[in-house]
Specification:
The protein has one domain (2-472). The protein is 66% helix and 1% strand. It has 23 helices and two strands. The protein has helices spanning 2-11, 13-34, 43-62, 77-81, 89-94, 102-125, 131-142, 145-149, 156-162, 164-174, 181-191, 193-211, 219-235, 237-248, 267-278, 308-316, 321-333, 336-339, 354-370, 377-401, 409-432, 436-466, 470-481; strands at residues 67-68, 75-76. The protein has a two-stranded antiparallel sheet with strand order 1-2. A hairpin with a 6-residue loop joins β1 and β2. Keywords: Membrane, Transmembrane, Transmembrane helix. The chain crosses the membrane at residues 12-33, 77-95, 107-125, 137-156, 191-209, 221-248, 298-315, 322-344, 350-368, 380-399, 411-433, 440-462. This is YfhO family protein.
């Protein structure tokens, strides 16, 4: 028993999970203290995520698992909440508590989502790098800009947490270890059908590039992938199929990206591409610059290191499969006609597949950090820091002489300074620290601090912009609980899902 416990501890999973949990806890600490244990943010988190979890909790405990009159004008529970709640293992943990306690429980479960994302990413990354560097990459993935901007979309973090299992399952299959991809697909099918579709598209792209010119020789591997993929979907079909059938009734599915929008045409769009790669993520409902808002979940920022290490890898390993995937992925984000493929050509043109690219960016970052002497890290960091400084200063000139570019000066300067400081620190640590052990410690400390700052700052801004304190939010929930209706056919008209 002791040997088994020692083996589990030495594998690194427990340490990475605990480190990520601590990081998330420190990120949310200020909001939890101010909220007296209540955790709220704003927009969809307050108006959908919390009420939805409370509704499902009540429905399951009352046995009302079929048609539910509390959903809009009435709807099936599984079809309606297979996307938001029912597939999340963290939601089922919350069902152990009374529905009214969810605003108090949600932060601790959110921390677990970050920890799970780091642990699952670590399992994939350590196949290619040493454990310490895999841990650094896991933190970059779990606390990326994509995670920060999507804080108000609670259920997105489940998909991010378990996606690395898909790539790990594929790598196992590649090594002849069958039977591991299917459960990974099943988990992701249960968690969220929408993201699974994007993940399958990405996995196909991953296979094509990973195997390169050996596709015919890898036909058996392709067949095994298909078999395990279908088996995994069948295993997760209890939620996957009802959710898909429910969604197929949505008339918006017939809306596709018009030909005129296949390419970006304005300077703002290309500035947005650059900023999402180099600087910390913006709030979707109130951006500090370029656009007033953007609901496409567009950020691929890695805490502190940003684009520097992936760019080093691309420039050094031009023909390597990972470099090709990274360069291609970055190009796809800048071309709507390609980007929309992940959303089945929907007219929304969301960037909600970016966490998959971020996992590969984290892998490249870990590999470059592990063999830093082989890569031009100092030069790339210096060039990017200078470029980012010019962009920041130029944005003020642009706003004054061309058209409005900066919406919130204080927030814009905060994020710009953070992005530039991260580049400078990455370059300085690489230049000044010779010892490998100290290098990992210094890089880890810097990434740890940036994870806390970017995640915590984004959460604080979301809550500040909501215009409502956590205590006021809970008071509204309690007031709603005191209302009574003659029977289930009656409704209460309200401006959101809270009341």
């Amino acid at each position: 028993m002791k040997d088994r416990s020692k083996k589990i501890w030495e594998s690194g999973y427990v340490q990475v999970f605990l480190l990520a949990y601590l990081t998330a806890m420190l990120s949310f600490a200020v909001l939890l203290i101010r909220g007296e244990g209540i955790f709220t943010l704003g927009n969809d988190f307050n108006e959908q995520q919390i009420p939805f979890h409370m509704l499902v909790n009540r429905a399951l405990k009352s046995g009302n698992t079929g048609w539910n009159w509390s959903i809009d004008l009435g709807s099936g529970l599984v079809g309606a909440f297979g996307f938001y709640v029912l597939g999340s293992p963290f939601a089922w943990i919350s069902f152990l508590f009374p529905p009214e306690s969810y605003p108090y429980v949600t932060a601790w479960l959110y921390m677990a989502k970050y920890a799970a994302a780091a642990a699952c990413a670590y399992g994939y990354l350590k196949r290619f790098t040493g454990k310490r560097y895999a841990a650094l990459g896991a933190m970059l993935y779990a606390f990326s800009g994509f995670q920060s901007v999507n804080l108000i979309f609670h259920h997105f973090h489940d998909a991010v947490a378990f996606f690395p299992l898909m790539l790990s399952g594929y790598e196992d299959l590649r090594e002849g270890k069958k039977g591991r991809l299917a459960p990974a697909v099943a988990v992701n099918a249960l968690v969220n059908y929408y993201f699974l579709i994007q993940e399958v598209i990405f996995l196909i792209l991953y296979f094509l590039v990973r195997e390169g010119g050996h596709l015919w020789k890898k036909r058996k591997l392709a067949g095994s992938c298909m078999v395990e993929g279908f088996l995994g979907i069948a295993m997760g079909g209890v939620l996957f199929l009802p959710s898909v059938l429910f969604t197929l009734e949505n008339p918006r599915l017939s809306n596709h990206l018009p030909f005129s929008d296949w390419l970006y045409r304005g300077n703002r769009d290309y500035l947005q591409v650059i900023r999402t790669l180099l600087f910390p993520g913006e709030l979707m409902n109130a951006q500090s610059c370029i656009k007033e808002y953007d609901w496409s979940s567009w950020s691929s920022y890695l805490p502190m290191t940003g684009l520097a290490l992936p760019l080093c890898y691309i420039l050094k390993k031009k023909k390597d499969w990972l470099a090709v995937l990274l360069a291609g992925g970055i190009a796809i984000t800048a071309i709507p006609a390609l980007n929309c493929v992940f959303g089945l050509c929907s007219d929304t043109n969301y960037h909600r597949w970016l966490y998959m690219l971020i996992l590969l960016m984290s892998l490249a970052s870990a590999k470059v950090a592990e063999k830093r002497e082989e890569y031009p890290i100092k030069g790339i960091c210096a060039a990017l820091a200078l470029f980012m400084l010019v962009l920041t200063i130029g944005s003020f000139w642009w706003s004054e002489h061309k058209y409005q570019l900066i919406n919130q000066t204080d927030v814009f300067l905060t994020w710009s300074a953070a992005g530039i400081a991260g580049m400078v620190l990455t370059g300085l640590i690489t230049a000044a620290v010779r010892s490998r052990k100290r290098y990992v410690i210094c890089m880890g400390t810097g990434i740890f601090a940036f994870c806390i700052f970017t995640t915590g700052m984004t959460a604080w801004l979301y809550q500040r912009n909501s215009g409502q304190s956590p205590q006021e939010y809970v008071e509204r929930l309690e007031a709603f609980g005191q209302l009574s209706l003659p029977d289930e056919r009656y409704r209460i008209a309200g401006s959101d899902n809270t009341l």
